[in-house]
Amino acid sequence: MNFPAELKYTKDHEWVKVDGENALIGITEFAQRELGDIVYVDINTVGKEVAEGDVFGTVEAVKTVSDLFMPIDGTILEINSNLDANPELVNKDPYGEGWMVKIKLLKPVDVLLSADDYKALVGV
């Protein structure tokens, strides 16, 4: 399983890739494996300020629907529109083409887990 060291992680299995005052957010490889084949991603929070821990969308897999939790306070700037037609990108490339939202950060990300801390959390 892949745990890119440059990313930050949450206990709810989201990842954050910081780029200045913005960040990309998605779900981890561990999360997408647990969910199975993803068939639909529903995020309609563009332009909204979302607090850490709030639900910002859902992911639907063949057998379940799971909420997506905001890992850090931010304003959602963009949704990965490629997921509309190709939600399986989350399964194929969760840390690349399968990203979900781009946000403007409203606070530092130092409260998130490192790759090593996340690996320990999921028992890898």
Brief sketch in words of this structure:
Its cofactor is (R)-lipoate. The protein is α+β, with helices and mostly antiparallel strands. The chain is 19% helix and 35% strand.
Shape: globular
Task: List segments where confidence is low: pLDDT < 50 over at least 5 consecutive residues.
Answer: none
- Encode the helix/strand succession as letters: EEEHEEEEEHHEH
What is the CATH-assigned architecture?
Answer: Beta Barrel
CATH H-level superfamily title = RNA polymerase II/Efflux pump adaptor protein, barrel-sandwich hybrid domain
Average residue pLDDT: 94
Let me know the largest β-sheet.
6 strands, antiparallel
Helix count, DSSP H or I runs of 4 or more residues: 4
Explain what the structure shows.
This protein is α+β, with helices and mostly antiparallel strands. It has a single domain (8-114), classed as OB fold (Dihydrolipoamide Acetyltransferase, E2P) (Beta Barrel). 19% of the residues lie in helices and 35% in strands. It contains four helices and nine strands; from the N terminus they run βββαβββββααβα. The protein has helices spanning 29-35, 82-85, 89-92, 115-122; strands spanning 8-9, 14-19, 22-27, 38-42, 49-50, 55-61, 65-69, 74-79, 101-105. The strands form two sheets. A six-stranded antiparallel sheet has the order 1-2-3-9-8-5. Strands 4-6-7 form a three-stranded antiparallel sheet, with no helix packed on it. It is globular and about 35 Å long. The glycine cleavage system catalyzes the degradation of glycine. The H protein shuttles the methylamine group of glycine from the P protein to the T protein.
